[in-house]
Amino acid sequence: MHPEGxxxxxxxxxxxxxxxxxxxxxxxxxxxxxxIDVEGHRVxxxxxxxxxxxxxxxxxxxxxxVLEALRLPADAVVADIGAGGGYFTERLARHLxxxxxxxxxxxxxxxxxxxxxxxxxxxxxNVEVVRGRFDDPNLPEGSCDLVFFSSVYKEIDNRPAYLxxxxxxxxxxxxxxxxxxxxxxxxxxxxRWMRLSAEQIxxxxxxxxxxxxxxxxxxxxxxxxxxxPNGAGRDTSARLPS
Length: 242
Prior knowledge:
Layout: H1 3-29, E1 35-38, E2 41-44, H2 49-52, H3 55-61, H4 63-70, E3 77-81, H5 87-95, E4 101-106, H6 109-122, E5 127-131, E6 144-150, H7 159-169, E7 170-181, H8 198-207, E8 210-216, E9 222-229
Enzyme class: transferase
EC number: 2.1.-.-
GO molecular function, one term: S-adenosylmethionine-dependent methyltransferase activity
């Protein structure tokens, strides 16, 4: 087949995948909530795991750009909190060298099973699946260079206490990255009442003793912010760029 014909075929396949995923998401959205209650806690509905793994996500999540923005050393240790089916876990694992490590943390049994299956099927030898608790990521103290939250920070009930546990698992110089849907974003995703503004996230992290480092604006649906512990409570010197 001519190269242009192959490219056209790939584009058509991608468009079909996008339409299929979006259509299924919209169809389920009428009868199944995107967030459910498990043991009294709000968590992502695993019925939508297919959407998180669809090719459609690459277009708005821009995972490679996210990883490049984080400027991770090849031997970094990263915790993917609320890893779900492992969308970012696998990309983090492949982005790092064998000397690096990814802790894939989740609290739902179905997600733990999906993560273990992915690790086995894809040969991700530098990934360790961790069963977290709703109030604790269950990570070794001083173990992580980065703690990564993609669309999960909002689901944590007692965020100040959880952030204190996150602080304990960070190495010196460690960082926290948070991706969350913007409140005004109309695209499919979490309920609008659950969405957090970038300003609220900064305020909460500062109140928990973290310092805002930087924000990236290339994600069409989400805010993307990075923090580090300041060790001295609230620090109002670091603000979002105007």
